[in-house]
Amino acid sequence: MNFRTMEFWGRDTFILKIASSAYASFTARPHPGWIGLLTPMSWTGDFRLNACRHELNSAYYLDGTHDYTVACQDSVRLLVGIRRHVMDSVLSEISGDIDLDFLSGSRIFDDCSECVFEMEEMISSLQTDGIRHAATFEGTNLSQDQERAVVAKVAHVLLEKMECPTSAWLGQIDDYHITTTIRDAIRDRPLHEDLRLEELYEIAGAGKNRLHKSFVNVYGAPPVRYLKLRRLWRARQFLLDPKNSNCKIGDVAFQFGFPSSGRLAKSYQAVFEELPRDTVKRAKGTASRGAEVL
Fold first, then answer.
1. What is the C-alpha separation between 66 and 196, in angstroms, rounded?
2. Could you give the CA distance from residue 271 to residue 172 in angstroms, rounded to a whole number?
3. Domain range holding 8?
4. Per-residue model confidence as pLDDT tens digits over 145-187
5. Residue 39: inside a domain, yes or no?
6. Is 27 in the same domain as 128?
7. How far apart are CA 61 and CA 38, in angstroms?
8. 69 burial via Cβ count (<10 Å: 0-12, 13-18, 19+)
9. For residue range 261-285, what is the model confidence (pLDDT) as tens digits?
């Protein structure tokens, strides 16, 4: 991978400083029990999340309910992760009766220069604190006081955006309502089943242009492209599981809605820059190293 990370870990929070030099791409599958805030720490280079360019002076709120495909070059970003129940508790404690559903679905926050500056100060402070290194992983431990400070800082940003939503953000809420309605409706459908666009229009209660706009705004891809990426993400998750290391790629292709192993391989390589068999080989290697440690 052509990027490096600086890591800070706590019980309920983590911070990753991600710096890329040459071009790098990867797909992250977050846990729905966590939320994240992604901010820029450099104004140069290129950083794209689900094919959407990360604009200057903007921050991403990530709700952890779907995969994120990252492509970056010559950029530095800061990702702060917090357990969802911890953030919900803090927001409720600070503001009392608050509609936490307002933060369901990922968001893009504009006009975040102050937030970015505060995050830069925070990471500089952590770097100079000289906290002891953990023995079990590469990175630095966060103290309880530092964790509380991190949570409070992110909570402040979220509350500010919730109390003073911009018209652009309100438009995003409509977009996420449409895409989430479809995502929830098809969640348990077999991936090899064909989904017609007319069916998606009916589920969302939206026309062709509105549906297209919502998916591009949320996922950086129109509905048909999103559905294909969804099948590829699920196939990758399946192949990364060591329990499936003896699977036949042709069977996997059919299971996830591709007519042949060749079609799966071509689409898979275009997104993940490796063939399905390479993913299986890597998963086997990881499992073998884990068994040796045990």
1. 21
2. 26
3. 3-164
4. 888 888 888 888 887 776 665 555 556 667 777 887 888 788 7
5. yes
6. yes
7. 7
8. buried
9. 999 999 998 877 789 998 888 777 7
